Amino acid sequence: MSQTKPLSARQPLEEQIIRLLATKSQAAITLIYEGYGGALYHVILKIVGQAELAQEVLQDSLVKIWQNSTQYDAGKARLFTWMVQICRNAAIDARRSRRFKEGEKTKELPDFVSNVERFSENQRQGDPALRAILQRLPEQDQRIIELLYFQEFTQQEASEALGMPLGSVKTRVRGAIKQLRAILGDEGLLTSAAVVQLIQFLLERH
Amino acid sequence: MKDIKTFIESGILESYVLGDVTAAERAEVERMAADHPEVREEIIRIEETLEVYAQLHRESPPPGTLQPVLERTGSSVTPPGGSNSSWWRLAAVFLGLMTLTTSWLWLRERQQFQELAADYSAQVLACDSVQQQQEKLFAEASFLRNPGTRSVVMAGTEKAPDAEAIVFYNPALGRAYLSVSALPPPPSGKQYQLWALIGGQPVDMGVFDLPVTVGQFQDIPFVAGAEAFAVTLEDLGGKPTPNLEALTVIGLVG
């Protein structure tokens, strides 16, 4: 087997976790946390905006992943897709409940100015791989992925907020993900070897 | 018959991966995916793209995030986590005891203190073993993530169709592990033995017992050039050549 095996074949870590979940071994939780915890935490944190709440939501989500593991169908989705959906839904609920408590009325579009500030911050202290991707991904593509993946907007809500038809939103998303895929492929990030190397590198940096 | 290309270009697959579809749309996507490999592949590619993108943005959760999750999902084992709490409990009880002054009470205190001290030691030991187990798991995860790590899944034979075990090996690191997912307990007097098939010949990799925790890594010798791995059920202590009648699981490399 060569090192450029495509990512479509399940990585050993994902396979191992799926097996351990099937036998209800708690080692699955530790492996999930170790391999995916940071990515899941980031998605949750972007949506809820507070570290303490994000930690709670992550913990609740991990418990839910554990409890609902029999509902995961490995034939229908990758493990991460299933887990991130659980985390996003939990984060969206937490965010809405907090907004309700604090009496906020409207859901605001994330201020793209502050996004740009964060972007340059990423450039200063983010890791080189992420910087390279963000530099190459057009702003509008970043924005739509940001809205739908890292924020709590559904496509319907994004279409209203951005003032464009739902069909256009769907087309934009497809375009953005295609573009992102092309860039990631160029950067060699879509092979299993590269991904695990990257994750290792990121983990060691802490 | 729906035009597959139009279907893929509509963006519905992206919506599906994002979880932003109605029940009817979900059913349609899954039907199309079941019938058409190109749809299935496209879904996987979209998933991979978003997964890698999310991993690029990863940030560490605050320390101490994992432990409460393990406690909440724990089964029969009483988690010692919060050795802090047992320390405070011990300290509180000890302080309470110290306020008593009569020698009769002092004798009883001594006995209670000894019991508490024994309980505390047991808690500390249990804490250590949980810590050790976690460290072991982190090391396992690290090995699994290593780019040179390969896996060979050994699937069950007719004797044990649901049996499964995996060999993980890394030629660059020269390390290999056996991970037992599901093997029936061996009858008394028998033991499982692992073999590597090299150059058409079975090579003994040693006997092993079922792990305490499912999937737990067990060290095995690293051998280069294995074409297959297999497990047979042999007499205690194993045999120099495998009894192929008792082949339990087997998997091919590559």
Structure description:
The complex is a heterodimer of chains A (206) and B (254). Chain A is mainly alpha-helical and 206 residues long. Chain A is 73% helix and 0% strand. Chain A has ten helices and no strands. Chain A has helices at residues 12-22, 27-48, 51-67, 79-101, 112-125, 128-136, 139-150, 155-162, 166-186, 192-205. In chain A, helix 1 (12-22) packs across helix 2 (27-48) and helix 2 (27-48) packs across helix 3 (51-67). Chain B has 254 residues and is of the alpha+beta class. In chain B, 44% of the residues lie in helices and 22% in strands. Chain B has helices spanning 4-9, 12-18, 23-35, 37-56, 66-72, 83-98, 103-145, and strands at residues 150-156, 164-170, 175-182, 190-198, 201-208, 217-220, 228-235, 247-252. Chain B has an eight-stranded antiparallel sheet, covered by helices on one side. In chain B, strand 4 and strand 5 form a beta hairpin. In chain B, helix 3 (23-35) crosses helix 4. Chain B starts with a helix and ends with a strand. At the A-B interface, helix 1, helix 2, helix 3, helix 4 and helix 6 of A face helix 2, helix 4, helix 5, helix 7 and strand 1 of B.
